[in-house]
Each structure stands twice: as structure tokens, then as C-alpha cells.
Amino acid sequence: MSAASAGRGSQAFAPDPRNAALLVWVNGRLVPRAAAVVSVFDAGFVLGDGVWEGLRLVNGRLAFLEEHLERLFRGAAQIRLDVGLDRRGVAEALYRTAEANGMRDGAHLRLMVTRGVKASPNQDPRQTIGSATIVITAEYKRPPPELYRDGLALATSRFRTSGPETFDMRLNSHSRLNLIQALLEAIEAGADEALMLDPHGFVASCNATNFFIVRDGMVRTSTGEYCFNGITRAHVIELCRGNGIPVELADFTLEEARAADEAFVTGTFGGVVPVASLDGKAFSQPLPGPFTARLWKLYRALLQSETLLG
Fold this sequence. Notes:
By secondary structure, the chain is α+β, with helices and mostly antiparallel strands. It has helices at residues 43-47, 65-78, 87-100, 145-150, 177-188, 231-242, 254-258, 290-309, and strands at 23-26, 29-32, 50-58, 61-62, 107-114, 117-118, 128-129, 133-140, 152-156, 193-197, 203-206, 210-215, 218-221, 247-249, 262-267, 271-278, 281-282. A hairpin with a 2-residue loop joins β3 and β4. The longest helix has 20 residues, at 290-309. It starts with 22 loop residues before the first strand and ends with a helix.
């Protein structure tokens, strides 16, 4: 699937020709895109053994940088991965990558940290040779305007999210196979993204974003136990609480989701994105729904304030 035909999911973007000449950070070196390579023995390639963060560059600043660094280092600690840089070092690497590419706005950076090169392609972390691999890509990338106009079509997947004792959804792991399987299933059903249930059958999240519904004036999302530890999700919940919008974090069923007045998803890349339909049934409110539109406006204002004031 080419970038030009990459569908309308929450990660959809319009190709930008400037990205062909961009530099990529690979273990302390800034190299052309074509030269940005890692070993086939790298733990990330062999096993998906690593953690990552996606960040937006707005007004010359990385939005919510401290929160992203907190999540990165907490995740690395969970899998006993030594990043090899402290928080200041990682922040400097991110900004150096953006500056080397002449970027100030409209860019998306992806920071990837793996356990590094293995002596042999196997699971054992003791077989790692040397330090972690750190790669940073910086691309000019914006969600297409039609994403907010037309919204997303979701389809419920048979693949479930999982708890920390199995595969912790709150850990930004490179391993995403179950989420990719859910998305493939949704695409085959004619949808843009998959809605996933938790092990108990309650609504958890989408395959790449966190899911919210609005019903009878109440914004609802999952408890957080079986969904992504979303920074945008947390900010939207706080925006509700700070602006007199009723919000509830609780278990709810697929039937309740289908009966909602409106729905939206949240994520670093897209912010607040309306959902048009679930399993072929359109929501009753025209897009974007009134709560979705208000929260998207509040979130954009927060994003601008955070990056302008720092």
C-alpha cells in the first residue's frame, strides 16, 4: 500500500515532497533518509524489542515534551532497557534533528529506541552487544482536512486489547502485531480503523488511538486499564473537567457505543478526530458533533498555548 493510497485512518497524511531530502538521526549521526539503516541483528528488527514516542513540532517547540519523555523512560524501565541518554540528551537529539531539517511547524517526529544489536537473532536480552539503538525521524506531516470533515468509519475487531500481565497496552512497545491484525480486519470490513474490546468484552480503544463516546450530554471513555496511555487522551479528559463538560471513565458495552450520539478518537498526530460510524451505523449528530467540535477547539488552543509559552 503506497502513501498516496494509505486510506483514511487516524494516521492518514498527504505526501510532502520535502520529506525526500530529510535527515534522520541514527545513533548520534544525522544521515540522509536513504542511508538511515540499522543492523538486521538489531533487537527492534528481530523482535520488536524497544519503545517509541511520536511528537508534534508546533511553533518551533515539541508539544508536551516532558510528558512524552516521562512515558518513554517509564516504558524503557519496564523492559529493563537502558536508553543510553538522559532526558536532556534525548530532548537535545530531538531538537537537533528538527533544526537540521529546518523545521519549525507542521512536523511529526518519531523517536525509536531498541535494545540494540544482538549477538544472534534470539529473545535473550543478555545476547545484546553494546548500547541501545536510537533513531529519530522528522517528517513534514499533517492530517488531511477531510479527516475532520468526513470522520472515521470504525469496525469492531475480534482481536482484543490486553492487560499488563499479558501485553501492556500502556507501554509504547515496538511490538504491535495484534493491533495491526485488528486494523487489517477493519480494512477488510471496509472501515478506516478498528475498535477493540478488552478481555471482559467492554470497549477499550482503537488500534492506534483512544476512543470516546458522547451520550445524553456525557463524554465517556474506558477506565484506562486496557487502552493506550494516551497523552492527548489525558489532556482531553482534563479539558472536560476544567470546562464544565461531564466526563466519565468507566466500562461500557459495544451496544452502548453504537447507541451514542457522537464519538471521537484522540492521538498525538490527529488530536481530536470525529468518528462518523461504527459497524456501518452512522452516529446521529452531524460531523463534527458539538462535543467533538468544542473539545477539538479547546485542545488546539491548549496546544498553541503550550508551545508558545513553553
